[in-house]
């Protein structure tokens, strides 16, 4: 099991690297390249997504507060998910206190923020 430590949102986070593979399949060269392209910029990319993450949380129907004081009260980063596609699609997968079943993801495509939302946006 591969892991990586990244610092973002003012905290060090140890994250498992998960490749989207079918049982018995090998990680593709495209997936390895996607991860290699993403990791050098990951901390900056994730930091720059913070405003979108906070806005998503603040607009959640389950949210009782008016604003996010500590982002880690709501999302707990867990893994980097590398999608099995020709495009470079990577998600930061998080647990999410306001929706424990679907979790939370920040989706990047070609090292650009694509979308934030439940983990369903990337799975």
Report on the structure:
- This protein starts with a strand and ends in a 6-residue tail after the last strand.
- A 6-stranded mixed beta sheet has the order 1-2-3-4-5-6.
- With 123 residues, the protein is α+β, with helices and mostly antiparallel strands.
- The protein is built from 3 helices and 6 strands.
Keywords:
123 residues, alpha+beta, globular
What's this entry about, in short?
This protein is of the alpha+beta class and 123 residues long.
Biggest pleated-sheet summary: 6 strands, mixed
Number of domains: 1
Strand content: 25-35%
Biggest β-sheet: strands ordered side by side in the sheet: 1-2-3-4-5-6
Number of DSSP helical runs: 3
**Rg to the nearest angstrom?**
14 Å
The mean pLDDT is 95
Order of helix and strand elements from N to C terminus:
EEHHHEEEE
End-to-end Cα distance, whole Å, is: 20 Å
Q: Uncertain spans, ≥5 residues at pLDDT below 50?
A: none
Number of strands: 6
Summarize the SSE layout with pairings:
Elements lengths: L2 E6 L2 E9 L9 H10 L3 H7 L1 H9 L16 E8 L6 E8 L7 E6 L2 E6 L6
Parallel strand pairs: 2-3
Antiparallel strand pairs: 1-2, 3-4, 4-5, 5-6
């Amino acid at each position: 099991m591969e892991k990586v430590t990244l610092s973002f949102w003012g905290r060090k986070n140890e994250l498992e690297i998960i490749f989207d593979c079918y049982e018995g399949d090998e990680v593709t060269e495209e997936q390895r390249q996607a991860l290699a392209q993403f990791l050098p910029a990951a901390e900056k990319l994730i930091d720059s997504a913070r405003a979108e993450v906070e806005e998503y949380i603040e607009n959640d129907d389950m949210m009782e507060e008016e604003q996010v004081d500590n982002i880690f009260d709501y999302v707990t980063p867990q893994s980097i998910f590398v999608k099995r596609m020709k495009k470079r699609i990577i998600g930061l997968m998080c647990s999410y206190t306001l929706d424990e079943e679907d979790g939370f993801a920040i989706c990047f495509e070609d090292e650009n923020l694509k979308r934030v939302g439940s983990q369903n946006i990337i799975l």
